[in-house]
Write a structure and sequence with these properties.
By secondary structure, this protein is of the alpha/beta class. It is built from 13 helices and 10 strands. Helix 3 packs across helix 4. The longest helix is centred in the middle third of the chain and has 18 residues. The two termini are about 20 Å apart.
């Protein structure tokens, strides 16, 4: 099973530029989580911090209980073996064919024989639908195939944590959906903890068990998918519906006067930009027939039951509806939510 990843009040800057501050969240073991946010909000910086490529100025990052911000280089090297990373462009070596690209981590970090390496590499190529393409160079295949090859390489060391940076980058919507399905299927097969960093709205609605969002150098919220997908927070609603009206502007945020003008236009019926608002929650993507039962579903159900009373009413209703549809009527737990999400509930979610 995948391991828990937890951050406590981490802050990252480059010189005088603050990227984000006081970010605390927990990626539950073996579940699929997504981190959203407009371009330029530091999502990729957050991902690189989790693996120790960048160090925050303040706060702690716990990987399976070990704070990597205090590790020696040798200890960090060992912890990184828990990770598999799919970078935006696949990060393949252009001079190597796909077989050698996927075999590279095994040759670098293990003492396995070439026969053992071949068995593992062919298994991962089959898993990602690339059998028959192992002799091709990255420049000879499509962007979607390069992504899958990058994923195959990320899987060869049997990681317990998989980090995926902008999986839709350079892909059309159909290929993005195929890759999303592949991530769900892989989670079913190896039960790894997965974090997807993205600004793709459809992927965010379909794939993760948990969703967080970065904006204005802060974590707006993080928790079960239903919390963000039913949120009335202006920035969340604007982002999920792809609208111009809201706090997000062309340069990350708008001033108050611009927001007031746009609100007046919105109230007058001028809904410029974006599609029709999406009502309700789209059912989460499931593993394909023939795949093992996704263990994360059961674990998440029990975990969410424990915090159900802390969630906003709309999220509670969505969770109960989902559980009833799946034949699980035992959702009446603890007193109803009575407080504000932005204070105590956010703390409950990120720490639980």
């Amino acid at each position: 099973m995948g391991v828990e990843v937890r951050t406590e009040s981490i802050t990252k800057s480059f010189g005088s530029q603050r990227i984000w501050q006081d970010v605390s969240l927990t990626l539950p073991s073996g579940e699929v989580s997504a981190l959203l946010g407009p371009s330029g909000t530091g999502k990729s910086v957050f991902l690189k911090s989790l693996i120790g490529l960048l160090r925050p100025e303040r706060g702690s990052i716990y990987i399976d209980g070990t704070d990597i911000t205090t590790c020696s280089n040798k200890e960090l090297y060992e912890i990184r073996k828990l990770f598999g990373v799919l970078f935006q462009d696949g990060a393949l070596f252009g001079s190597m064919n796909l077989y050698d690209n996927v075999a590279f981590p095994l040759r670098e970090h293990t003492k396995k024989s070439e026969s053992d390496i071949k068995k593992i590499v062919m298994e991962k190529l089959e898993l990602t639908g690339l059998l028959g393409a192992e002799g091709k160079l990255p420049g000879e295949i499509s962007g979607g195939m390069r992504k899958r090859a990058g994923l195959a390489r990320a899987l060869v060391l049997d990681p317990q944590i998989i980090l995926v940076d902008e999986p839709d980058s350079g892909l059309d919507p159909v290929r993005t959906t195929y890759l999303s399905q592949l991530l769900i299927d892989i989670n079913a097969q190896i039960d790894a903890t997965i974090l997807i960093v993205t600004h793709n709205i459809n992927l965010a609605r379909l794939v993760p068990d948990n969703i967080g969002m970065l904006f204005r150098r802060e974590l707006v919220m993080f928790g079960p998918r239903e919390v963000l997908l039913t949120s009335e927070e202006p920035v969340v609603k604007q982002f999920l519906n792809g609208r111009m009206q809201g706090p997000i502007g062309m340069s990350e945020e708008k001033d108050e006067s611009q927001m007031a003008r746009e609100q007046a236009m919105f109230d007058a019926g001028h809904h410029a930009g974006g599609a029709e608002e999406v009502e309700g929650i789209i059912p989460q993507m499931k593993a394909q027939p023939g795949m093992p039962v996704r263990q994360a579903v059961g674990r998440r159900r029990e975990r969410v039951r424990q915090i159900l009373h802390t969630l906003p009413p709309a999220a509670q209703e969505a969770i109960r509806h989902s559980m009833e549809e799946n034949g699980d009527a035992d959702t009446q737990v603890m007193p109803a939510y009575t407080g504000g999400y932005d204070t105590t509930v956010r703390q409950n979610l990120t720490n639980g």
